[in-house]
Structures are given as structure tokens and as C-alpha cells.
Amino acid sequence: MKPTPNTRLSNRALAFVLAGGRGSRLKELTDNRAKPAVYFGGKTRIVDFALSNALNSGIRKMAIATQYKAHSLIRHCQRGWGFLRAERNEFLDILPASQRMDETKWYVGTADAVTQNIDIIDSYDIDYIVVLAGDHIYKMDYEVMLQQHVDTGADVTIGCLTVPRMEAVAFGVMHVDGQNRITDFLEKPKDPPSIPGDPDHALASMGIYIFDWKVLRARLLDDLNDTNSSHDFGHDIIPYMVANGKAMAHRFEDSCVTSGLETEPYWRDVGTIDAFWQANIDLTQFTPPLDLYDTSWPIWTYAESVPPAKFIHNEDGRRGSAVSSMVSGNCIISGSEISESLLFTGVRTHSYAALHRVVALPDVVVNRSAQLRNCVLDRGVEIPEGLSIGEDPDMDRANGFRVSEGGVVLVTKAMIDAFNDRA
Fold it and tell me: Which of 38, 210, 238, 380 has the fewest CB atoms within 10 Å, counting from its CB?
């Protein structure tokens, strides 16, 4: 269906966010929450980036498919995204796996999460569906990608990152012709195909797909009856449509949103402890690679009503201070030294403690004289008085904490409870 004149394509589109995965590479950080519900950037959750991109792009019809330990994610969406008003034809529908098509069947693949909700999506009266991963950090105007999709007459348009060719071995890779039509889709190839005219780079899939809804609907119903299918977009739906339809690549740099401070398009998969820690610590730089202060493209989230941060004590060796750091509301920095760290809401640090390159999730307590370096503290962790973390990896492991390949230490409440029981 062609849009009527002067109608934004986003008005006829649904953003469908896939947020059912655990994110097992984040280890214990996802023991109690799905990866999209993991905290990021001081006050937001990872899923807020996909949802905010949709809202800022003009898409006011959104749905989010949940499955693994979804309570934290569902509660966040209800609290943080309840400002959408159905009477204005805008909404965020939460679609938990609920055995809608089979009493023994949960969502068995990314495509199946859409298939099981076909009747609901039909009721939205949309022409286009924008399928999004709910676990990446980036700013993107989907209206630009929608416009390319319609202008090229594509059956599917796939968002792509331009990456150094050999780094693409970890992605699904697009082989394209000179007009950006996808001629082949290769999942994690050992020898990725380069971009025409650019032998050093390849196009890697971002997990962002735009379809005409009628086209995708028909393909999903055919795939449902295919006993050899894994019912997954990357493994089944996309390769079929590349081979049997018109698939186009959309380059992220064409629709990436920047404030003017970012020096290059920013996209991060924060799916490992090291990547999660680094992306948060990066935000404390003088000029961070991602500008969260850009009011023209806000990242919407649940805005808690809390008092401002407070810094107290002003003595040598006992001075409440934070340098090159982000400190959220309701934090009290009491005689502690904070440097190159990111503190979420409600953190308390006590006298003579020092935190360097620490990511502290909400409601963390750091007691007196604790010395912390290069670590991630999960929500509600209370660090015992005088404990040192991040200085000696062998000692950290002996104390029951997880040390990543990059040397970042993850500390959770369960780990601290076990440590205290042994002490």
C-alpha cells in the first residue's frame, strides 16, 4: 500500500522489538533479568534505545516480545513507557510468550515470536513492520530506512554496519551489488565478502529488518509449516527472501543520529561483561563516543523521583569527590574518591573508599575503606568494609567473584553473600 501524500511512513509502521533473550554472555548479570532489561548509562535500560529510536522516528505503534525472566523488563516498560496514549493511536504492547498457538510451545525463534502474534499485529492496521533487536546501544532514525525501503520497492530492507572485513566473521554478512541489493546472506563467514569498491570493509547485519507486513505475514505462515526451519530471521526468513525476493541493504551511516559531538556512527553490542563495562566507562570521557545529552534525540526511560546527588566531607584523605565520572540522582558520596566511574541511582559510598573505573548499578553500598577498580557491581550489592576488588585477579577469583577475559570483575549479591558466609 502506497502512503497517502504528506503522510510519514512511520505513521503506517509498527516497531516490533525482540526482547526475549537471556544474553548468557553477560553471565550472572542476567541471572534475574533479560539482557534488554540490563541497566545502561546511569539511568536507562538497554531496551530504551530501540524504543526511543522508534518514538523519536515518529513510530507510535510498538510491541515488545518477551520470554526469559521478563518481570523486570515488563515492569520497566509499564513504568517508563506508560505515557503513550491509546486514544491518540499510540501504544507499547507487551507480548509475553503465552503458548498462543500451541499449549506446549513457547517462542522457538525470533521469527516465531512474530508468527505467534500475527492476529494481534493484523489488528494494528499497519503497512510496514520494523523488526528490532532489543539489546543494542545506538541512535538511529528509522524513518530514513523506511523511506529507502519504499523507494526501492524492497520486500525486506536490512540495517547494516560497515565494519573492517575480517571483523565481520562474527556477524551475518551481506554480499551486495553496486545498487546495495543483497545477493547473498552469509552467517559468520570465515572469508567475508567485501563491499563493492571497498575491499577492506564488509556489511554486517544489525538485526534490524523492515518488511511490508503482507509480504512478511505470508512468508511467516509458510515457514510455520516447514519442519526443517528453525523459525529464525537470520537463519531462515532472511536467506529465503534474499534468494526469492528483493532484499536491500541500508547502511547505518545513512540514518545514524548524531549531535555533532560523535566522531563516527555509534553502535554497540554490550553482550559481554567486558563490552558492557567499556561502553559504560566510555560515557565518562571528556567527549564520549555516544552523546546522551542530545535533547533533540532523547533516550526515554523510567524517570524516578529522587533527590539530587550529594557529596560530603572535605578533609585530606576523606573528601567526597568525583572526577571524570557520571553520578546519578540519590547518590551520596561520603568522604570517598570516585574517578572515571559511572554510578546509577541510589549508590552510597562511605569514608576512605576509592572507586576507579567502576560501574555501580542502582542501590549499591560501598562501605568504609573499600578499594575498587575495574569492576561491575550488580544492583543492591553491599561491599564489605576494607575489601579490595580489581587489584589481584587470583584473589578476586578466590573470593568468588567473576573475572572476565579482559580483567573486569563482576560482583553480584549472591557472590557477596557467599563471600560473607565464608568470612
Answer: 380
107 carries a ligand binding annotation: yes
82 is in an annotated binding site: no
Cell, residue 113: 515470536
Is residue 245 part of an annotated ligand binding site?
no
Let me know if residue 108 belongs to a domain.
Answer: yes
What is the pLDDT, as a whole number, of residue 295? 94
12-29, pLDDT tens digit by residue? Answer: 999 999 998 888 999 999
Q: Tell me the C-alpha distance between 186 and 194, whole Å.
A: 12
Number of independent structural domains in the chain:
2
| 28 is an annotated ligand-binding site residue | no
In angstroms, the CA 24 to CA 20 distance is 12
For residue 27, how many other CB atoms are within 10 A of its CB? 14
- Distance between start and end Cα atoms, the chain: 67
Backbone angles phi, psi at 189, to 5 degrees: -70, 150
The pTM (predicted TM-score) of the whole model is 0.94
Pairwise CA distance, residues 232 & 131, whole Å: 12
